[in-house]
Specification:
The complex is a heterodimer.
Chain A (H helix, E strand, L loop, with lengths): L3 E4 L2 E5 L4 E7 L7 E6 L6 E6 L5 E4 L2 E6 L4 E6 L8 E8 L8 E3 L3 E6 L1
Parallel strand pairs in A: 2-11
Antiparallel strand pairs in A: 1-3, 3-8, 4-5, 4-9, 6-7, 7-8, 9-10, 9-11
Chain B lengths: L3 E4 L2 E4 L5 E7 L6 E6 L6 E8 L2 E4 L7 E2 L9 E3 L8 E9 L6 E7 L3 E5 L1
Parallel strand pairs in B: 2-11
Antiparallel strand pairs in B: 1-3, 3-8, 4-5, 4-9, 5-6, 7-8, 9-10, 9-11
Classes of the chains: A mainly beta, B mainly beta.
Chain lengths: ~110, ~120
């Protein structure tokens, strides 16, 4: 059973546009929602993360919007650049559990055209 | 940050060979994880460890085995590789300092891409 559902699977955006990736979850025990960015041949790297007591978090051009009642969260990339072309994974964690493991979405392959 | 080192980065081997993928971290973290990643699929947890001499299987059934004899090392072994084992294997440990690990954030190594012919 997939714990975190992510869409779209792929996304093509023109340079300067806004990229939006959406995720949804069911487990209300999740209390931490990080996003990872992965370039080809590299491991995933933490990009930005949010706790459920916050509705929005912004770091530079990257913003997470969080809707606790809908159990949804999304990543917005403003002024998308070709260098943002990568695969993005949303994730969720129950940090109170003994293991505290992460559950990942299936990823979104973002391509930003110059 | 955690420094996670994985070797080899790429490995192409024949069916039936035994392989070991190495993973080491420098932060002294107790928790370590192995994820398997296939194209278009989420990262699947295949093994994890709470510390020395502690290993558990994750969600995705895997024929691989792991060991944790030293805190800094968490190698993954396939006794007899098959083409179905072709995948990318990612090792990770939590952010934060030892004893104050934030398991909501993981640092990943660069991965070991295994191809079994």
């Amino acid at each position: 059973q997939q714990q975190v559902k992510q869409s779209p699977q792929s996304l093509i955006v023109q340079k300067g546009g806004i990229s939006i990736i959406n995720c949804a979850y069911e487990n209300t025990a999740f209390d931490y929602f990080p996003w990872y960015q992965q370039f080809p041949g590299k491991g995933p790297a933490l990009l930005i993360a949010i706790r459920p007591d916050v509705s929005e978090k912004k770091e530079g051009r990257f913003t997470i919007s969080f809707n606790k009642s809908a159990k949804q969260f999304s990543l917005h990339i403003m002024d998308s650049q070709p260098g943002d072309s990568a695969t993005y994974f949303c994730a969720a964690s129950d940090r109170g559990s003994t293991l505290g493991r992460l559950y990942f979405g299936r990823g979104t392959q973002l391509t930003v055209w110059p | 940050e955690a420094d996670i080192y994985q070797t080899p980065r790429y490995l192409v081997i024949g069916t039936g060979k035994k392989i070991t993928l190495e993973c080491s971290q420098t932060m002294g973290h107790d928790k370590m994880y192995w994820y398997q990643q296939d194209p278009g699929m989420e990262l699947h947890l295949i093994h994890y460890s709470y510390g020395v001499n502690s290993t558990e299987k994750g969600d995705l059934s895997s024929e691989s085995t792991v060991s944790r004899i030293r805190t800094e090392h968490f190698p993954l072994t396939l006794e007899s590789a098959r083409p179905s084992h072709t995948s990318q294997y990612l090792c990770a440990s939590p952010a934060g300092t030892s004893g104050r690990e934030n398991t909501g954030e993981l640092f990943f190594g660069e991965g070991s891409r295994l191809t079994v012919l």
